[in-house]
Amino acid sequence: MNTSLPSPRYLVLADGAFGPMTSKTANAIIRYQAELVVAVVDRAHAGKTAQDILGFGGAIPVVESMTEGLAGKPDAVLIGIAPVGGQLPEEWRRWLLEAIDAGCDIWSGLHTFIGDDPALAERAQRAGVRIHDVRRPPAGLPVASGRARLLDPFVVLTVGTDCNVGKMTSQLEVVRVLNASGGGVRTRFVPTGQTGIFLEGWGIAVDAVVADFIAGAAEQLTLEGSKDADIVMVEGQGSINHPGYSGVALGLLHGACPDALLLCHEAGRRYIGEFRKDTAFPLPPLGTYIDWYESLAAPVHPARVVAIALNTQGLDHERAILACEDAVRETGLPATDPIRFDATPLATAILDARAAYLAGRARRAPTG
To answer: Rounded to whole angstroms, what are the CA distances from 359 to 109, 154, 231, 259?
Structure first.
């Protein structure tokens, strides 16, 4: 498990793919740790700012080259996108060598481990800098045993209708609201992907774990996250009907043993992976997803969907409001876009579910 990673000043590498839907890791770092970002390398948008491209991030400059970015004196280069095919382009290898020579650590969430590249590893050792391959799973992961269902804290897992619909972002917004509410409910976010690890400084990227141990990794993370917490928010991955990533979604569901689920959906998305234009698996109604996730959770630890987190970034303001109203009518659950509007309805639904859970547990407790 990655623990206690530092928080350096980053130069973010997102060449050729910096945008709202194509640079998930870069975007999250800019949204939540903008003060740590000195620049973004992307030749396609050089001369603009993060605000121009993403609609947030302020005046963070987009620069044309690694040399220009290194002039901002970063401590580390963070790879903010996944290159096509998951392999490291030769041009990027030259750029990373340049960054290492400038004294920068390398932070990567790629499936291709930077530290396994002989030239980069040898140069980093000589320069006295570190390569953080945060997707590299730790040794000794257990097979899940269902221990997470016995935890005292209330565990919430985000589940989705697809990948890249806002599961992590929705949870981070809910965590922010709960921890700022002043109600004394300690809430902790549990990262299960590379971006969350970058933000929180610990976690396991469960999509890089051997299949037999995905649930065990989720269990271990949930147990760790339960320390000094009243509510544990476990980051979801994938979707239960995604032809490629259903396994990791189910592993998290059975390993984390959540007490409640937060269903995330991009309003207007009609197909799995629609933004990539490479699949044609239609998305069923939200009610079908609720049935699927609750039915699949039940054999290990029953959990109900308590709210709907919508991503409405592709809609104008009025259509976004209508999408939230439609989701409420369709499911009978609170629904909102926690970025565009307010995460409070989602946080309130979780608090209400926790109160009912605690009341039920008190009724079942033996009396003297």
So the answer is: 41, 12, 15, 14
Cα gap 336→364, rounded to integer Å: 34
Question: How distant is the alpha carbon of residue 83 from its chain centre?
Answer: 18
Q: Which residues, 6+ apart, have CB-to-CB distance to 116 below 8 Å? A: 133
Contacting residues for 184 by C-beta, under 8 A, at least 6 apart: none
Separation in Å, CA 224 to CA 80, 142, 158, 268: 27, 14, 18, 36
Strand order through the sheet with 154-160: 187-190, 231-234, 154-160, 260-266, 304-311, 335-336
Q: Tokens 């697809």 correspond to what residue?
A: 162
The overall average pLDDT reported for the chain is: 93
| Distance between start and end Cα atoms, the chain | 42
**Residue that is written with structure tokens 């979707």 in the block:** 239
C-alpha distances (whole Å) from 316 to each of 127, 161, 267, 285, 319 are 49, 21, 11, 22, 5
| SS3 assignment, position 214 | helix
Tell me the mean pLDDT in the region 166-181.
Answer: 96
pTM: 0.93
Answer whether 311's CB lies under 8 Å from 165's CB: yes
The one-letter amino acid code at 352 reads D
Judged on CB neighbours under 10 Å (0-12, 13-18, 19+), 23 is buried
How would you classify residue 205: left for phi > 0, otherwise alpha for psi between -120 and 50, otherwise beta?
A: beta
Which pLDDT value is given to residue 304?
98
Confidence check: pLDDT of 154 > 60: yes
Taking the CA atoms of 208, 213, 214 and 219 in sequence, report the sign of the dihedral they define: negative
**Residue 63 identity (one-letter amino acid):** V
**Spatial separation of the C-alpha atoms in residues 101 and 113, rounded to whole Å:** 19
Distance of CA 360 to the CA centre of its chain: 31
How far apart CA 265 and CA 294 sit, in angstroms, is: 16
